[in-house]
Amino acid sequence: MKKLAPSILSADFAQLGAETEKIEKAGAHIIHVDVMDGHFVPNISYGATVMKSLLGKTKLPFDVHLMIENADKYIPDFVTENTGYITVHQEACTHLDRTIEFIKSFGVKAGVALNPATPPQTLEYVADKLDMVLVMSVNPGFGGQSFIDNALTKIKKLDDFRKKNNLDFEIEVDGGVNLSNVREICDAGTDIIVAGSSIFGAEDIGNRVGEFLELL
Ligand SMILES: O=C(CO)[C@H](O)[C@H](O)COP(=O)(O)O
Ligand SMILES: [Co+2]
């Protein structure tokens, strides 16, 4: 089953609880949490305190997308009863294998994200340890950007690679996903769809989640 993970980066932060409730009621599967440090990416978003403000208000798992340097230092802050996945960037981790093991030591699924310019082959020697690979289809740092088409080639390569090697990591796609391109992105082999501005920018957020779910 394909899963929908709305990114709260584009939510109205003054209404974060209410907007989260709307996406949960409408059937979204996961909450995507974008953490930006102003160093690895040229923007600062929010940290663990904001994510933790949703604890007790939603049953949905958190999918933590760490766009930060020194991830090992901050990973423990993001481990909560709702935390399903923690994903770090390949480009930001010197000791990627160690960081993956560190995430898994908390009983949380481990993901690695790849920037648009990063080839999928870079994950060859850690792929058997991974629960998820996040294919960035925009350069990370901002919501509301346009989908970079060659992400489709990368998704297909990763899908072939996991089939050939009998691996079971999930493939997540993040950036510029909308109602017009989501079907093609799913067909390429994606399991988890992240969508921020195309959900939280809609007039009726719940209705938009429903429209996405029909297409998954
Ligand atoms: O990681 C991200 C940006 O770095 C966001 O998850 C992503 O951009 C989602 O926003 P949108 O759907 O508006 O592109
Ligand atoms: Co993200």
Automatic annotation (TrEMBL):
PANTHER family: RIBULOSE-5-PHOSPHATE-3-EPIMERASE. Catalyzes the reversible epimerization of D-ribulose 5-phosphate to D-xylulose 5-phosphate. Keywords: Carbohydrate metabolism, Isomerase, Metal-binding. The keyword RNA-binding does not apply. It is an enzyme of class 5 (isomerase). It comes from Gallibacter intestinalis. A divalent metal cation binds at residues 32, 34, 65, 174. GO terms for molecular function: D-ribulose-phosphate 3-epimerase activity. Its EC number is 5.1.3.1. Belongs to the ribulose-phosphate 3-epimerase family. Substrate binds at residues 7, 65, 141-144, 174-176, 196-197. Its cofactor is a divalent metal cation; Co(2+); Fe(2+); Zn(2+). Pathway: Carbohydrate degradation. InterPro entries: Aldolase_TIM, Ribul_P_3_epim, Ribul_P_3_epim-like, RibuloseP-bd_barrel. Pfam families: Ribul_P_3_epim. It catalyses: D-ribulose 5-phosphate = D-xylulose 5-phosphate. Binds 1 divalent metal cation per subunit. Gene3D superfamilies: Aldolase class I. The active site is at 34 (proton acceptor), 174 (proton donor). This is Ribulose-phosphate 3-epimerase.
